[in-house]
Structure formats: structure tokens, C-alpha cells
Amino acid sequence: MSGQRKPLAQRLAEVSASRAAGYCALVHPKGGTSCTRWPHDDRRHVHHYNGRKQLGDASGTEWFE
């Protein structure tokens, strides 16, 4: 990744196939992970697998947009 953040509108346009499969899939602003929740209306995004501190943690990376 170049280190620059992509605009929200561009990241939303890039996830249409994943949304059809039932995921929100919005990519984290810094890249490297995407939301694994179902499509939702709130601003909370979570990647349940990347960013967990321990194996038993329910979720990993979380962010709001």
C-alpha cells in the first residue's frame, strides 16, 4: 500500500461483489483488513479475524466511519 488513504466513496465502490456475498467488506482506511460483518447501517466496522490479541477473542480490528 502506498500509505495514502483511499476516499470512503472509492472503498465502497470496490466491495460490491463481497456485499452480494453477505459481507459489509468495507476496507479499513489504512488498508490491510476489511469489515466481516453483514451489510449494516451503523458506522461500526469489525474484522473478526485480523487484529485479535488472543485466539479466543471474539473480534479483532474495529473502526468507525
Given helix and strand content, the structural type is alpha+beta
The residue-averaged pLDDT reads 84
Percent in strands: 5-15%
Count the strands?
Answer: 2
End-to-end Cα distance, whole Å, is: 20 Å
Topology as a string of helices (H) and strands (E): HHEE
Helix content: 10-25%
Oligomerization category of the chains in this entry: single chain
Output the strand order for the largest sheet.
1-2
Low confidence ranges: none
Shape: globular
Enumerate how many helices there are, as a single number.
2
Q: Give a quick account of the main beta sheet: strands, pairing sense, barrel closure.
A: 2 strands, antiparallel
Please provide a written account of the structure.
With 65 residues, this protein is an alpha+beta fold. The chain contains two helices and two strands, in the order ααββ. It has a two-stranded antiparallel ribbon with strand order 1-2. The longest helix has 6 residues, at 8-13. 9% of the residues are buried. The mean pLDDT is 84.
Question: Which descriptors apply to this entry?
Answer:
alpha+beta, two-stranded antiparallel sheet, 65 residues
